[in-house]
Amino acid sequence: MELIGAEVGGDILRINLGAFRPYLITRPEHLDRVLYDNKENYQRQGWLWRPLSRLIGDPSGSDDLWWTKREVFQNLVSGPSIKRFSDAMARTISASVQEMAARAENGRPLDAADEMARIVYRAITKVLIGDKITNDQADRIGAALQAASAALRPRLAFPFVPNAVPFPGDRTFRRAVRVVDSLVFPIVEQAQRQGSDGEDIVSRLLQARTADGQRFDLQQLRDGLVSLFVAGTETTTIALTFLWTVLDSQPQVAETLQQEVDRVVGDGPITGAHLLELGYARKVALEMLRLYPPGWMLPRMVANDDVIGGVPIKGGSLIVMSPYLTHRLPDVWENPLEFDPGRHDPGQQRHRFAYMTFGGGPHACVGKQFFTAEVQLILAAITSRFRPQVVGSPPTRPQLGLTLRPRQRVQIRLRQTGPLAKR
Question: What is the pTM of this model?
């Protein structure tokens, strides 16, 4: 895919993938047509969305309840809400890092993906679901969702095969979904019985109504909880796993980040108040997702004939937007392969669709502020106590699948540093 993007330089290309021939759309001005000017013509259906719907419910936004759920999510992970729960998030992350430290004693190498996943699962569930879920349940849900996501990958190669047709990975997928349901349905059922008096996601979904008074049923509550968990964990886990490899190869970035954490956090525990001062950590997080956006491709079905950049686009066909390739266009991002957090300094002027990690238009991910706050706190919690060292030389070139991910497992050792490490 990267070679294709380099050859066409952002031109619209129709790719021959055998069973289907999607249009590849990467230029920001072309994305403007898809995501804004004629957004109703490009629908979240078909490839990716059909298999994903078996896990999180209908992702298309075709009914009022979907938009009500999105509004609930947006309010929950907005700036004011993050400020309210940032201290709780910081405490949860610090406790998870302490557990990770125990597993890393005597220089024992750790699997970075597993460790980052565990921290992220704890952070999002304890903050957004509260005392409705235990750490053990959060870990089990996370492991099951990882298994379900991996089992869906074979279907991406055959996007027009109906879900009802048996396929490799189906048995693993069904087993993983049963685990998810066995943990999630009791949470939402109990919340229904006890009422909706909390600030967590389940309570807010129970309180939500559409303009005509519709409310979520049990299945929709389950889908809302699972979709938020999927959106809020996998992207962050992948980004953090990549990050240790990148920092290992970028000593100046790593040192600048370390200096900021030492200055801001010092000997004390991290708190939500530190977020405003961890500006460089925020820029590192955003640059990480520019260079390695986990959601590397965003497909849409074309409802009716259209023209984009002078190229006729046939109705009934598929287009694929690729943040991964958009972020590598040299006339959009100077020296695009260079890891440069300074790109995200305040006041930078770029096309609104130059940075596509969180999508764009009405379906854009609402979790950007939550993601950056979470990564800032995780980086601060880890680097205020340790300097993670990557074992070996894992390649930074990613592997394309359902999501963008490291090509091989990344292992890290935690080298203690600073006063907090001695506690």
Answer: 0.89
